[in-house]
Specification:
The complex is a heterotetramer, with two copies of chain A (149 residues) and two copies of chain C (86 residues).
Chain A: E1 2-7, H1 13-21, E2 27-34, E3 41-48, H2 50-67, E4 70-78, E5 80-82, E6 87-95, H3 98-115, E7 118-124, E8 129-131, H4 136-143
Parallel strand pairs in A: 1-4
Antiparallel strand pairs in A: 2-6, 3-5, 3-7, 4-6, 7-8
Helix pairs in contact in A: 2-3, 3-4
Chain C: E1 4-8, H1 10-16, E2 20-23, H2 32-39, H3 44-49, E3 57-60, E4 63-65, E5 76-80
Parallel strand pairs in C: 1-5
Antiparallel strand pairs in C: 1-2, 3-4, 3-5
Classes of the chains: A alpha+beta (149), C alpha+beta (86).
Organism (chains C, D): Edaphosphingomonas fennica
InterPro entries (chains C, D): Beta-grasp_dom_sf, Mopterin_synth/thiamin_S_b, ThiS/MoaD-like
Protein name (chains C, D): Molybdopterin converting factor subunit 1
Chain lengths: 149, 149, 86, 86
Amino acid sequence: MRDIRVQIERFDPGEELARLEALGGGGVASFTGIVRGEGGLVELLLEHHPGMTAQAMARIAVEAERRWPLLGLTLIHRHGPLAPGERIVFVGTAAMHRGPALEASAFLIDWLKTAAPFWKRERFADGREAWVEPRAGDAAAAARWDDQG
Amino acid sequence: MRDIRVQIERFDPGEELARLEALGGGGVASFTGIVRGEGGLVELLLEHHPGMTAQAMARIAVEAERRWPLLGLTLIHRHGPLAPGERIVFVGTAAMHRGPALEASAFLIDWLKTAAPFWKRERFADGREAWVEPRAGDAAAAARWDDQG
Amino acid sequence: MAAIEMLYFAWVREAVGTGAETVTPPEGVATLGDLVGWLSGRSPGHATAFAEPHRLRAAIDQDFVDFAAPIAGAREIALFPPVTGG
Amino acid sequence: MAAIEMLYFAWVREAVGTGAETVTPPEGVATLGDLVGWLSGRSPGHATAFAEPHRLRAAIDQDFVDFAAPIAGAREIALFPPVTGG
């Protein structure tokens, strides 16, 4: 099972986990990214490259399936305006044993951060707006998987 | 937030995730262990050391909190008879950023496998019963964290 | 020596034939290894359960310990196979 | 050279003043680096957007590429800041 979605709509991690749990494996891992309301943030706007996003996410998924024996994989990334506390991204993996599920979910979110064409703009209570700069650690987090391919 | 439960009752990963998501962090990671129905398995019986289990799980939680800056941590382990497809164990973590949430959830399930006093007995369709032997990889998976303490 | 509450789990419990018993080991039974050897003489079930000490794990008063651990002062000692939860 | 559909995202889009435009670069504009230099002359907004090429990333026909990539045959070229999704 490979389920990749780029959507404005909200999603329900519990429903996504249930789908992955039903695949007969012994382990399901997940990561959910949430908008933090730090510094007076009132809105996070997610822009993306519509033609490229689904394809870039599919490549990341294929790479994970090549590296680990997965029974299922779910990637959901929202775009559009998001309020603090809202879910941005969901990564879920199912495998026979826990190791592949856990490693693949960490890999998938690290790669989504650096290889999927999304950009975040923050809007603050004082009216200030700013495009989010990549965190220095993100490239390093993705690169650590290069040694293990 | 630290929530540790040893229970016969079922649990709902979606509800557990929602609680962790509400803590204000940017990342929530989870692992759910499920009974596999391989080889004609009809029941998995989880026995535990009632006096010791909650305390052993609390120690594992404290160790995770010492290693990573966590906003929240949930550990649920069921005991009693379980059917194939049922959830056995849930590990959930919330942190400001994804790295600590992901690493702590992998650490917690690795340690639960080797440092919490649970034992599994399998019962098969042909009537055969057998106590599960530890997987050779489990001790190694837990030990890899020793280098990083 | 004071009485010790013994707890047995999984196949150790099945082999011994009970999940709990109170024992009062004699002087000279100083370590957990000594205790396991002494317990083996209590019944054929005990002997079977403790025949291969490398297959056993233990906790004294709910802390994991190895077989060199002294049992002096122990109130509860649990013997069991390697854990397989998670 | 054939027409190329240019796409701009995030602050690159804001600086250029549009998210998409069709351009036909002259002969001699062979690489993506050449193209960015040539685009900088189209308007003050373009010049601002492309003033610091090390802050830009690019995709040709929806594959990430670096600035040495040849643009011959490209139908769509996207210029944008480093991605910050996830």
